[in-house]
Amino acid sequence: LEEKYDLIFADPPYDLADNPIEELFLQVQKLLVSEGIFVFEFASKRIVQLPNSLELLSKKLYGDTVVYFFKGL
After folding, report:
1. What is the rounded CA–CA span in Å between residue 40 and residue 25?
2. DSSP result, 2-62
3. Residue 4 CB: number of other CB atoms within 10 A?
4. At residue 12, what are phi and psi to the nearest 5 degrees?
5. From CA 36, how far away is CA 31, in angstroms rounded?
6. Phi (first) and psi of residue 46, to 5 degrees
7. Percentage of the chain surpassing pLDDT 70?
8. Separation between Cα atoms, residue 35 and residue 51, nearest integer Å
9. Which end of the chain is more exposed for a tag (fewer CB within 10 A), N or C?
């Protein structure tokens, strides 16, 4: 994709052991405009290495789900 986006949502499957979350973050960084918003939903029990290239704005916990709100740098 060659376009950049102001807002990106991602809700990958929770139960995949090989879920390439780090690859998803790399792709989002390429597609998100500076100051754009990235909303990421995932299983709250799963440990995720958060990207350094996105600013974490907020983290909301809803039962077994966590929703992260990031801003592009």
Report:
1. 10
2. ---EEEEEE---TT-TT--HHHHHHHHHHHEEEEEEEEEEEETTS-----TTEEEEEEEEE
3. 13
4. -70, 160
5. 9
6. -85, 130
7. 90
8. 15
9. N
> 40 exposed, middle or buried (CB, 10 Å; 0-12, 13-18, 19+)?
buried
What's this model's pTM, rounded to 2 decimal places? 0.85
The upper half-sphere exposure of residue 42, i.e. CA atoms within 13 Å in the direction of its Cβ, equals 22
Local confidence band at 16 (pLDDT 50, 70, 90 cut-offs) = low
**pLDDT category of residue 43 using cuts at 50, 70 and 90:** confident
Q: Which two tokens stand for residue 21?
A: 């979350």
Contact between 37 and 4 under an 8 Å Cβ cutoff? The reply is no
- Taking the C-alpha atoms of residue 11 and residue 22, their distance in angstroms, rounded to an integer, is 14
